[in-house]
Predict the structure.
Amino acid sequence: MAVWENRTYRHLFTAQVLALVGTGLATVALGLTAYRLAGPDAGLVLSTALAIKMVAYVLLAPVVTAVADRLPRRGFLVAADVLRMAVAAALPFVGHVWQVYVLIAVLQSASAAFTPAFQATIPTVLLDEADYTRALSLSRLAYDLESLASPVLAAALLAVADARWLFAGTAFGFAASATLVLTTALPAGPRPGEHPPARRGTLLDRVTRGLRIFAATPRLRAVVGVNLAVAAAGAMVLVNTVVIVRGHLGGSDPTVAVALGVSGAGSIAAALVLPHVLTRVPDRDVMLGACAALVTVLTTAAALTAALPGAWWPVILVAWALIGAADCLAQTPVGRLIRRSGHPDDLPALFAAQFTVSHLGWLATYLLAGVLGAVSIPLALAVLAAVALAGLAQAWRAWPAADPDIVEHVHTESDPHHLADATGGPGAWRHTHRLVIDDLHPRWPTTRPTRSWSTTSTR
């Protein structure tokens, strides 16, 4: 909690928690609204709403970030929260299913704009690496605790009020978040009229900038595989817990909540120890080790559920707890890698790229877990274990064991300002500095020192 002494971070974290609680209430209220409007077809309405959410996340995050990156950060965050508040306030009055779809599309588009911009703000507020790591763990704790607390809060509200009032709680959460951001002094950006490299070029250049940096940076290419492994295991838990508990084990609704809570408890436990682990173990070892654990747990659970149909309860509870912990260990340090891998002006584009790539993995694994879980739970576990293994293999191959920040490299074109400290002659200027992909370094240097590395200067 040492980072709590930073007033700016304290306001931003509180805003995040309030918005998360509001979103959790909206999740419960949306299910009840779908049932009010569609009755037995409520599941179809909800699945369509979730599909709209994922499409908005995958397609819109880079586009909105590229457009918004020319705007003041604080005003943009506040505007996104106000838009989400307005949608939440309108949802209780819908009378047709198509209206739900339209409002959900607007709401999730605003979230696709807000979340990467918010994530990119935190590393500019907490400059110390240890503080930023603590902030990442706190953020993970906030997500996990919200998943446990929001259903309880929703149940308490439903005991005294109509389901539509849950949307009032959602609107209040977004309004409070907007107020906290509005009263917080964020780091100043470029002066009006000044556009750093991340904000230059055509709209297409700005939209694809984060994805291009991801593709050119080895450690970020590895994050794509990590995202896939995390999504494979997480989708199994989120999609099939109710199928396993209610359909195969004859449990009740509270029992489903307990099973999901076990996974959340594992994640919370991992988040509490993660800052201490990362002071002793490299990010690569923690993240790839966690992905390997996910593969092992899914594979073992597949074998045990197939061989021991009468012993599913202990298998599922232990597996879900381990998946929650490993998911946290694999995913939480991603913010550290992104901060290492880009200039401050590129952080919004990089977080938007991560937002898109990670949710694309979730979209695919949600569908896979749902289709296979309806056929056979052991089969679903086995196939998702194979998907997680593919993600681990890609991450392992892309991320070299030696991954320094300071890299010696060669330029084949002269730039007097950038190469002031370089050595060598025409066509081969060699120097060393913290390396990230940018306009002067569009490609990662080869590991073979005899090959020169060509860059194109834009200055």
Summary: The first strand starts at residue 406 and ends at 411. Residues 190-195, 447-459 have pLDDT under 50 and may be disordered. The radius of gyration is 23 Å.
